[in-house]
Amino acid sequence: MSLHDVSLSRRQFLRGASLAAAMPVFASLAACGGNNANNDAATTDANKTDATQAMTLIVGFDQDFPPYGYLDENGQFTGFDLDLAQEVCKLEGWTYQPEAIAWDSKDAQLNSGQITCIWNGFTIEGREKDYAFTDAYMENRQVIVVSADSDIKALADLAGKNVVTQADSAALNLLSEGGDQAELGKTFAKLDTIGEYNTAFMSLQNGEYDAVAVDYPVAVFNIGDSKDFVILDEPLNSEHFGVGFANTAEGKELAAKVQADLQKLDANGTVEKLCEKYADQGVSYTAWVLPKASA
Known about the structure:
- By secondary structure, the protein is α/β, with parallel strands linked by helices.
- It has helices at about 5-15, 35-45, 80-90, 105-110, 170-175, 180-185, 195-205, 215-225, 250-265, 270-275; strands at about 55-60, 65, 70, 75-80, 95-100, 115-120, 130-135, 140, 140-145, 160-165, 190-195, 210-215, 230, 240, 245.
- The strands form 4 sheets. It has a 5-stranded mixed β-sheet. Strands 11-10-12-9-13 form a 5-stranded mixed β-sheet.
- A hairpin with a 5-residue loop joins β3 and β4.
- The chain is globular, with a radius of gyration of 20 Å.
- The model is unreliable at about 1-50 (pLDDT under 50).
């Protein structure tokens, strides 16, 4: 199947899939038909605070951001980060609810309580003061993708070229005023933004743009087996992903709990298994950077 066919297929899924209605962030499991097992868990875990027991974790994510969060061939939400979130919910006894969001509205939805967290290849750098983050769990880098027959071989060759990236993305922040690659961005003929990366790759394939600035695993996923695109050897940067909560006392408490759970999932081998599951999409356990929990 060609990249073009895959992109069109995903867009058909997008048109057919309806987003789950927003729910209160903290929902009683008993209200969802709570059973004896849930009631017993609540009784035996008396040390949990009111903010974190018997709740629904509403995970805000971009459904066009593979391999971290996306629609699979069956129209189901899946991805490395979503799988991690589900495993955390299993540890805590929480109800897991994925909530696809428009990326540029993520802050409004987080601060209004429509979602509990942003968990979707979410770059920490440059956002440290805006969210209650877990410590970084995954290293990432922003890269440039061009057509295989392009004369662009290095970052310096982007001068005078038309480049596209996702709106409100780490790549955009990196290349815009104040970003670490702002000087490079100034050399472009234009730097446009688009709602999601599937469309960006289609635009690159159609010759509307000369290059796409994108997260490395997303680039690997979208390229797949296609010989039409290449990733430049020279990356734009190195950065790190974390899980972002509202920058409140409650958000900080949840961030600490999720971080501890991620360390448990690493220790029991779950993280490495999930990395292997998504290895052909650019996810590698060697990029996992969350320190082990202290004994």
